[in-house]
Amino acid sequence: MKLKTLMLMTGAAVAITPMAVAQDMADSMTIVSWGGAYQNSQQKAYAEPYMEMHPEVDIVWDESSNEAVAKLRAMNEAGNITWDLVDVVASDAIRLCDEGLAMEIDPDDLLAEAPDGTSAEDDFGDLLVSDCFIPQIVYSTTFGYRTDMVPEGVEPPDDICDVWDLETYPGQRSLEKRPINNMEWALLCDGVAKDEIYDVLETPEGQDRALAKLDEIKDEVVWWSAGADTPQLLADGEIFMGSTYNGRLFSVIEEQDQPVGMMWDAQVFDLDGWIIPAGLPEDRLARVKDFVNFATDTQRLADQAAYISYGPARKSSAPLVGEHAELGIPMGPHMPTAPENSENIFVYNYEFWADYRDDIDAKFQAWLAQ
Amino acid sequence: MQTMPIPRPPLVSFTVPMVAALGAFFGLFVGIANGSGILGLAIGAVAGAALAYGLASYVEDKRTGRLVTIAVFAIVGLILGGVAGLVVLAVIGFVLGWAVYWLDRGTYRSTIPPYAKSGEVLWHNTYKFICGLIFFFLIAPILTIIPLSFNAENFFTFTPEMLSFDPDGYSLKHYRDFFGTSDWQLALRNSLIIAPFATLISVSLGTLAAIGLSQTHVPFRRPIMAILISPMIVPLIISATGMFFFYSTLGNWLEANLGFSQSFVGYVKIILAHGVLGVPFVIITVTATLVGFDDSLTRASANMGAGPVRTFFKVQMPLILPGVISGGLFAFITSFDEVVVVLFVGAAAQKTLPWQMFIGLREQISPTILAVATILVVISILLLTTVELLRRRSERIRGMSPG
């Protein structure tokens, strides 16, 4: 009896509240992101200033970006979309856009202009890889290594092919448990020219060639699947070198003070940004649009770089990148886009992977199980 | 047990080799850790043999012998390996010193009848040893997380400072993180809202179902029982997928027709889902207590004019209460530990502790999770101890009262 009364009362109380404050924009917003240091940077740079301007808004964070595609599909099917704004990598944004699960946007209409009046479309430029995608950052996947495990009398590794050089640099490596990036690096070190890699990788022979190259180090590889794995393995000293996102390595080196160095050579650039789920009710959509306009303006994108070493997606933000919020070190040199870091970069080909992902994934998984 | 003095086993052909073997076993591990397993094995065996001979022949008093052994081992450890060496060798010294007297004084036979053959004695002690090992493997993983949760670093790693017991290697920062972060506090609050309500639902429905199903005149008792217990047997991921679609529809209906807010409906969905998951545990424990319940009591009660409801609360309920409570405890823990269904049915506003731990583990391997785990372990121990004490108390009281 008591329970029932209580629940009914709570229900009635909760039901009355929204009516009293009914207005054009919803007061609560669920934002989906990646958790960890990255989500923290978004909270500090976007959400907290926004909530200061709009104290009535309540933002809930959901760390589900990893399975965003699957969950959005299920939500769409169940007709119960609880997310308002979703942070995904560019390739997921392309998939969601193709399936009609993400809303198409007009950058010039939705997003703010640069301070000098450049239109948003020009300011983001090539990074607008999909009609639904609102880019935030450029991040890279690169290698970090234990500085104290470099053998004596040997230069620290500075070439992507040092990953394969088990004689000079003994010790285990960690690589991501998927073909993307690994196949490209393998071919690069097998002597394929950078601009021919995707041509070679299209052919079954090319794929076998990449796997054969990976075979050389397979026994020494620990496979990771979460971004936090490589930092943990490096901190433990279980591996000599491993690939992960550059922001994670920055955190290990500068914030956690571990003896780890960055390699940067042949780092692979990728994009991360927002999508708005299709089919939001009017009031929630209005709120999200307002937030996105604020959170992707030039200053906000530059502010984010004070918390994590990812490059802002707007050209106009680059000059505004300042110092780390807590450590006070200049963030410019830690950006993957900084000139000294990006001497040799590798640009990830979305279209290729959209077409070949399933085939190569199957082949790669079969190879892993051998 | 038995009062007959146990004959001392032969020293040179029994006690010395046994202790030497034990010493060799420890020596092997210490040796491997320091680079040479064989050398460690040899040193361990010699040390064990010498210790056994020395103690058994020259030190009559057990306590003195054991303390001296621990002290000598600890000092050697301190010289060779610092504080860490001291601890490791002190533990080894304790075990070896104990083993010498245990073997030499024949204590190992004390719980076995004197006519048992050596094979039987060996088996009895091996059996005890295996039980000890099982216990160790159950407990050790839980115990390792406790020191790690006081790590000063942000990784799941025993740092050199921690291993040498340097105070700088330890900190409470992960506990501060837990109590100071709004994410963790929200998760804790949600768990504390959801679990009790889910438990209430499971306990009331489960108890009623168990009582109904224990009546012989109920038709289709077995199929009904099987269906009610199925949430425990069906893989959770399947229940979770089904629940996701079912409760989405239900939630949409509640929001559209009754005007409830999204967050309230979110709680209702998870509470109902967890209630369903908890029901089988309550049914099983209550059915088990009902087996010992004497049905003539309810008939007697009815005979004296009490209605079924009164009979239930005054006669039946007090007698089956232990089953209801332990079922409720299981239901509470199920809801409190559950992550799969919450991930499906819940929205981010209803993030529970296991959900927060799950994402914390995947996105950011932070020892805050270990701090939370330690807190939960302590709470579980306290909870179970309290329930056990209450149970004993009620048993004692009931034992004294007539009837």
Q: Could you characterize what this model shows?
A:
Chain B: It comes from Psychromarinibacter sediminicola. Chain A is an alpha/beta fold. Chain A folds into two domains: 175 residues, Periplasmic binding protein-like II (D-Maltodextrin-Binding Protein, domain 2), CATH 3.40.190.10; 159 residues, Periplasmic binding protein-like II (D-Maltodextrin-Binding Protein, domain 2), CATH 3.40.190. Chain A is built from 14 helices and eleven strands. In chain A, strands 1, 2, 3, 4, 5, 6, 7, 8, 9, 10 and 11 form an eleven-stranded mixed beta sheet that branches. In chain A, helix 2 packs antiparallel against helix 13 and helix 7 crosses helix 9. Chain A is globular. About 5% of the residues of chain A have low confidence. In chain B, 79% of the residues lie in helices and 0% in strands. The longest helix of chain B has 43 residues. Classes of the chains: A alpha/beta (370), B mainly alpha (403). Chains A and B meet through helix 1, strand 1, helix 2, strand 2 and helix 3 of A and helix 7, helix 9, helix 10 and helix 14 of B.
